[in-house]
Amino acid sequence: MKDAFNPNNSWKNREGAGLPFDFNRVPLSKGSMGNTYINASFVGCLGRTAEYVLTQHPLADTSMDFWKMMLERHVNVLVVLGSVEEEDEYWPDSEPLEWYEEDITVTLTDRDEFKNIKASNLEIESDMNESHQALTMFQISNWPSDGTTPNDHF
């Protein structure tokens, strides 16, 4: 977790718990201020390639890097731990169904809610790169900020 604790990167972490290991973190080709760090990890299953990306909600200053990561890495499944305040939302959770920032548009195409999990089907488009990506984002809203869950938490 050397990269996560680096002073040039630590300000990009929403919480002190849930930091990515260096060996499975998702590097950006070029993020904000030329930095490749973002709080996100590739997660796979026994010898298989990465199945999904696990992350914290991005901060206001890192939301563009967050969406660039999805496009660069062709992420199809994303798991986001914790809840986010309404004013910090970085995706369309209800009307309007689109969210814009710089050259990126995120469109909500479908949404389901389970006990403590919200599943959102999203389309991401970048005008600059002419890229397009569909993904399913699972938000686990009751994930504790210290990263420790009791057995009956879900």
Automatic annotation (TrEMBL):
Q: Which organism is it from?
A: Amphimedon queenslandica (Sponge)
Q: Highest taxon of the source?
A: Eukaryota
Single Gene Ontology MF annotation? protein tyrosine phosphatase activity
Q: Which InterPro entries does the protein's record reference?
A: Prot-tyrosine_phosphatase-like, Protein-Tyr_Phosphatase, PTP_cat
Q: Which Gene3D superfamilies match?
A: Protein tyrosine phosphatase superfamily
- Ranges for domain Tyrosine-protein phosphatase: 1-154
* Protein name (record): Tyrosine-protein phosphatase domain-containing protein
Q: Pfam families recorded for this chain?
A: Y_phosphatase (PF00102)
SMART domains, per the entry: PTPc
For this protein, the record's PANTHER family field holds:
RECEPTOR-TYPE TYROSINE-PROTEIN PHOSPHATASE (PTHR19134), TYROSINE-PROTEIN PHOSPHATASE 1 (PTHR19134:SF449)
